Amino acid sequence: QVQVVESGGGEVQPGGSLRLSCVASGNIGGVGLMGWYRQAPGKQRELVAEISSTGHTTNGDSVKGRFTISRDDAKNTMYLQLNSLRPEDTAVYYCHAQVILAVGMISAWGRGTQVTVSS
């Protein structure tokens, strides 16, 4: 069974930092494209950042220069460093991963981790 689990969310003050982690586990052969998405109350889910298996990254316009995505393929883990946090960054952050199985590739989502930025 494949699992994708996020961690590292919490509540911080504006200007603060957090580091989110996402681990893919189970009987998997590896992980392809990985990405972070977020969804604030009453809004659609949006792409925050994604990273390919070769390390190519794409950031959403609202987080450029503040958030950094990275991955450790030996651990099937992806990270998101969130700096200079703003109240508008408050959302549930979801991990998405293209998980490689013996029979092919599947798209897997985590359940999300809450990030709250408030003074």
Secondary-structure map:
Elements: E1 3-7, E2 10-12, E3 18-25, E4 30-39, E5 46-51, E6 57-59, E7 67-72, E8 77-82, E9 91-101, E10 104-109, E11 113-117
Parallel strand pairs: 2-11
Antiparallel strand pairs: 1-3, 3-8, 4-5, 4-9, 5-6, 7-8, 9-10, 9-11
**Which structural class best describes the helix and strand composition?**
mainly beta
Distance between the termini: 40 Å
Tell me the number of strands.
11
Coarse morphology: elongated
Brief rundown of the structure:
The chain is mainly beta and 119 residues long. It has strands at residues 3-7, 10-12, 18-25, 30-39, 46-51, 57-59, 67-72, 77-82, 91-101, 104-109, 113-117. The protein contains no helices and 11 strands.
Task: Describe the structure in your own words.
The chain has 119 residues and is mainly beta. Strands 2, 4, 5, 6, 9, 10 and 11 form a seven-stranded mixed beta sheet that branches. A four-stranded antiparallel beta sheet has the order 1-3-8-7, with no helix packed on it. A hairpin with a 6-residue loop joins strand 4 and strand 5. 29% of the residues are buried. The model has no long low-confidence stretch (mean pLDDT 96).
